């Protein structure tokens, strides 16, 4: 099973699908799922944008991509998504319409992940809930933890909520392993004063093979977690930089094989550079 991993798309939810399309055509390798580490920019109503998104949207309409492309059907987009036949599975970031996501989560109480778009191709994980990704007889065990942590105890919707903390505690008591953990924030083991304790608790108490996160603004980095087991990856934000090209480490591909062996590819820039700020919507 191959998983493509992205972070911090800030409205450009169509771009990961287009990058995956390019990857499949040029490598001949099939992607089975897309994973996304939060800051989707899930704002169906442009009157409910947060201050940061309003600021960026004034300069770049891409910030409003969820509203523009995924709330009302576009026939060209539907054809692309049906041809690819791949679901994107996300966690919440801190730049989302959480009231909108709350309503959808509450309307689907039995589901470990719930659809948020008109095409039923973008799903959001319930924080702390272990779930399965299946392709034939292959299974990948996935968990996600959305939003960000806060040492000051603030409870507004950007920060992990009490009901999500309870789900994480259930996960800590479970006996199963996790193949892939996706989070928006990083853990709180850094001395820089931010991060999420719940993520550290999972990494310290549950066997996790891979952890992918975004949010921090740092460049791509791959390292072994302090637990000595987990391979931890900071995924670069999917933001166009100088020259209108994407940064190194903005697209990763995890090839998880049935025997339990796995390989991780940092997709080379010679491929990601083919979609630039100036042509990716063509």
How would you describe this structure in keywords?
282 residues; 26% helix; globular; single chain; alpha/beta; Purple Acid Phosphatase, chain A, domain 2
Can you describe what's shown?
This is Metallophosphoesterase. GO terms for molecular function: hydrolase activity. Residues 1-217 form the Calcineurin-like phosphoesterase domain. Pfam families: Metallophos. InterPro entries: Calcineurin-like_PHP, Metallo-depent_PP-like. The structure is a single chain. The protein is of the alpha/beta class and 282 residues long. It has a single domain, classed as Metallo-dependent phosphatases (Purple Acid Phosphatase, chain A, domain 2), CATH 3.60.21.10. The protein is built from eight helices and 13 strands. It has helices spanning 14-27, 51-59, 65-69, 75-84, 98-107, 162-173, 197-205, 269-272; strands spanning 2-6, 33-36, 87-90, 113-115, 122-125, 131-135, 138-145, 178-183, 208-213, 221-224, 231-234, 252-256, 262-266. The strands form two sheets. The chain has a seven-stranded mixed beta sheet, with helices on one face. The radius of gyration is 18 Å and the shape is globular.
């Amino acid at each position: 099973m191959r998983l493509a991993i992205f972070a911090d798309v800030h409205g450009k939810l169509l771009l990961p699908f287009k990058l995956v399309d390019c990857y499949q055509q040029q490598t001949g390798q099939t992607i089975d799922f897309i994973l996304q580490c939060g800051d989707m920019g899930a704002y169906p109503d442009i009157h409910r944008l947060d201050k940061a998104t309003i600021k960026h949207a004034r300069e770049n309409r891409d910030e409003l991509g969820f509203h523009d492309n995924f709330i009302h059907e576009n026939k060209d987009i539907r054809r692309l998504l049906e041809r690819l036949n791949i679901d994107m599975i996300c966690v919440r970031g801190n730049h989302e319409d959480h009231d909108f996501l709350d309503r959808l989560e509450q309307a689907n109480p039995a589901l470990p992940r719930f659809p948020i778009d008109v095409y039923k191709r973008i799903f959001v994980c319930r924080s702390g809930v272990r779930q399965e990704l299946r392709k034939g007889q292959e299974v990948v065990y996935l968990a996600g933890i959305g939003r960000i942590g806060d040492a000051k105890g603030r409870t507004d919707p950007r920060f992990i909520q009490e009901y999500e903390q309870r789900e994480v505690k259930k996960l800590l008591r479970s006996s199963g392993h996790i193949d892939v953990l996706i989070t928006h924030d990083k853990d709180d083991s850094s001395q820089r004063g931010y991060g999420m304790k719940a993520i550290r608790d999972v990494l310290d108490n549950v066997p996790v093979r891979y952890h992918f996160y975004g949010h921090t603004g740092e460049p791509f980095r791959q390292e072994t977690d302090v637990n000595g087991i987990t391979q931890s990856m900071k995924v670069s934000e999917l933001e166009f930089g100088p020259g209108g090209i994407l940064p190194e480490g903005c697209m990763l591909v995890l090839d998880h094989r049935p025997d339990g062996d796995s390989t991780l590819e940092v997709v080379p820039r010679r491929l990601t550079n083919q979609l630039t700020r100036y042509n990716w919507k063509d």
